[in-house]
Amino acid sequence: MNQGHQKHFGVGFTIVELLIVVVVIAILATITIVSYNGIQQSTRESTVQSDLATAKKQLLMYKAENDTFPRSVADLAKVGLRPTQSVYHTNNPSYANYYYCANTSTDDFALVARPAGTTGNAGYVVTSLTDVKTTTNATSGIICTVIGLSGTTDANAWYTTGFSNSTGLWASWTK
Fold this sequence. Notes:
With 175 residues, this protein is of the alpha+beta class. It has three helices and seven strands. It is elongated, with a radius of gyration of 27 Å.
């Protein structure tokens, strides 16, 4: 028998089999990335809701001690609001992400926040009279209206933002 002319078929995979494996891995990677992004967004939204619920408790305690809600940056700083800054929308120069408004006539407050990753003006709002709820208009235009004012320029409104989109910095009362 002539050993030099014997055909050896190597054990291995065909190009089609390898292609199928690559496609399956790509599909699994896509599913994993989409799921991970969804989990991240859910975590950001839960954190913002928790921040707002905690802020409401702190503001109610401040009112119990001072007979009014904060109406200045110095007063807000005394409250000790510390939003988890990394989960808030900070990359759009057209929007801020954390608004506070006090109605000096009725002594109510509202906080509106926009988590990172939200589209449009979606976000959350909490007031002295309501729990945290979703809103499709988490902007400066809505914040004071939810506590009975005509807007941020109303004579009875005291309004400020927690994050300045013009400077890219958080306000001193949020630190």
